[in-house]
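Incident log, support desk, overnight shift.

02:14 A customer reports that sequence design results differ from what the structure should imply. Their input is reproduced verbatim below. On-call engineer (initials T.W.) acknowledged and began investigating.
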């Protein structure tokens, strides 16, 4: 949905669609997620991540 970076900080906002097995049955759900990363010693490291339930308004 959105992403950006400035210097040694970056962010990503996305809808994550996931299928997993719960109690032997497949379950599909979506999360609205925000991830913040910081560059340390030349590598990107996630310093914060948040996800909450998402329901597509068109459903």
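02:41 Re-run completed on a clean worker. Output:
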């Amino acid at each position: 949905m959105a992403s950006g970076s400035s210097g040694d900080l970056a962010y990503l906002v996305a809808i994550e669609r996931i299928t997993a097995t719960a109690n032997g049955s497949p379950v599909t759900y979506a999360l609205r997620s925000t991830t913040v990363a910081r560059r340390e010693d030349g590598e990107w490291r996630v310093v914060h991540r948040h996800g909450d339930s998402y329901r597509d308004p068109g459903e």
